């Protein structure tokens, strides 16, 4: 019983840490992101990373995003390219994006931003949505 209690407490602590991390992480507003991508030149491309599930991504995503579900990130790091590249991460509401950013920082990625409000806010503000 003690081991189960310890495990549950560990999971709760990790979840709280990820949520706090997502809230404290450097973020970018949707409008600033759109401005950044419009002024983007060939040498400073921004990678937009959607860490939701494939089904969520296929139901609609921010235009130009690539989809790597958070659980698949360890096996897909090569798809992200240079560790100094600017990467903007989002999910549905922020929890998975926080976990992804935390993981990517541990892997040495340096220029990570969290899209404020994630996909829910993007959709709520009637910003462009792309479907495959």
From TrEMBL:
Superkingdom of origin organism: Bacteria
One Pfam family per UniProt: Rhodanese
Range of residues in the leader sequence: 1-22
PANTHER family, per the entry: THIOSULFATE SULFURTRANSFERASE RDL2, MITOCHONDRIAL-RELATED, THIOSULFATE SULFURTRANSFERASE_RHODANESE-LIKE DOMAIN-CONTAINING PROTEIN 3
Family matches, as SUPFAM superfamilies: Rhodanese/Cell cycle control phosphatase
Protein name: Rhodanese-like domain-containing protein
Coiled coil: none
Keyword field: Signal
Statement: the UniProt record of this protein carries the keyword Cytoplasm: no
Domain (Rhodanese): residue spans on this chain: 42-131
Taxonomic source organism: Glaciecola petra
InterPro entries attached to this UniProt entry: Rhodanese-like_dom, Rhodanese-like_dom_sf, Thiosulphate_STrfase_CS
């Amino acid at each position: 019983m003690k081991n189960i209690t310890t495990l549950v407490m560990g999971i709760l602590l990790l979840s709280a840490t990820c949520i706090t991390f997502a809230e404290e992480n450097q973020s970018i507003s949707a409008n600033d992101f759109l401005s950044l991508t419009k002024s983007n030149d060939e040498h400073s491309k921004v990678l937009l990373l959607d860490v939701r599930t494939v089904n969520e991504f296929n139901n609609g995503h921010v235009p130009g995003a690539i989809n790597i579900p958070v659980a698949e990130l360890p096996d897909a790091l090569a798809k992200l390219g240079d560790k100094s590249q600017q990467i903007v991460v989002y999910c549905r509401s922020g929890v998975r994006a926080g976990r992804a950013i935390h993981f990517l920082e541990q892997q040495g990625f340096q220029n990570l931003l969290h899209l404020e409000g994630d996909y829910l806010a993007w959709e709520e503000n009637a910003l462009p949505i792309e479907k495959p």
